[in-house]
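Quick one:
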Amino acid sequence: MNPLPQNKLKKTLFIFISGLLFLLLLEGIFRIYHWTLDRSYPEMDSQSFFQKPHPTRAWAPKRNASGYFIDRAHRIKTRVSISSQGLRDSEIPLERDPRKLRILLLGGSAVAGFEVEKNQCVDTVLEALLSKHLEAEVINAGVPGYDLTQSHLYLKEEGHLFKPDLVIYFSVSQRAAEPAKSKNLWISRNFFLQRVHQTFYKYSYIYRGTFSFALKKLDRVVLKDRSSTLGPDEKITRSLFESMAKLTREFGSDFALFEFSNGSPVYLPESSLRKIAADLKIDLIKTHEKFSQAKEGTYYFSPEGYWNPTGHLKAAEILFSYLTHEGWELMREKVQR
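Output:
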C-alpha cells in the first residue's frame, strides 16, 4: 500500500485544522476587543430618544430632551441637547436683531449633525466664521431623517417665525451610480446560502469585515447606469422648491440650496437638481466636486456618509465662501452697515 496519499491527506487535514484554529483564535480576539469597546457604547435607540410623533411631519425633535447620541457601529458618542423650540441649538428669540445676519439651515442628518459635538457642527462653525466680519446667528433646524416634504412643512409651520435673512436647504443631490453586481449577488438568489450568509454576517466579525470590504471594492469597480435620486418625484421636488422660495420671499428672506453629497466615488452630482435650481432661479451651492477631491474618509464616517468634524468644517467653509466671496448682496449690505 502506497503511504503517499495518506501523508498528503494528513498534511491537508493538519493545514485545514490549523487554519480553522487560527480563525477561531482571531475571532475570539475580535470579540474580546469589540466587547470591551461596546461597554462604552451601550445599544439604544438614540433617534427615538430625541424624537416624538408629529401630526403633520410624522415626527419632530423632542423638546427639552438631552442625552447621548450613540452609534455603536462607528464608535460615536456625542452629547445632544434639544431646546424648547425643538432645535439642536440655544434658545432663539423670535424677534430678530436687525443688525444681525440670521440664517436658517434646513435638512436631515447632515444639518442636525448628531454624529459630532455641537461646537463642531456646520451651523456653529459657520457662525464663528461669519462673526469675524459681522454679527451673525446661524440656526440649526435640521432633523435626522427629514426629507424635502418634512423640511417644507417645518418652514411653513415654524421656521418662518424666526424671520431669517436667508434659508438654506441641504438637498441630497447625488445620482446613485448603482452597483451592477451588489444587488444581484449569487448569494441573494439562493435561499440556503442567504441564510448561511446572514448567520455568519450577524455572529462573525471576521466574515462581516471581509464581506463588507469585498462588496465595497466590487461597488467601486463595477457600475451600472446612473439612476436619479429624484426619479419620478422630480415634479414634486420642483413644486416644493418653488413653494419654499415663494414662502421665504413672502417674509422678506432669500432661499438657497446646498448640494449635499457624501463624496463617494459611486455617486455623481444630480443634474436634475441643478436644472430645477436654474429654472427657478434659486441659488445652488455646488459642493460635490469640492468634497470628492479628498481621500476617502477625510470628510465622512464610512460607509453611510455622515459628515465627521472635518466634513462639517468643510461645509461651513463652502457656505462662508458663498456668502462672502460669491457676491450675496444682503451679506455685503450687512457688512457695510
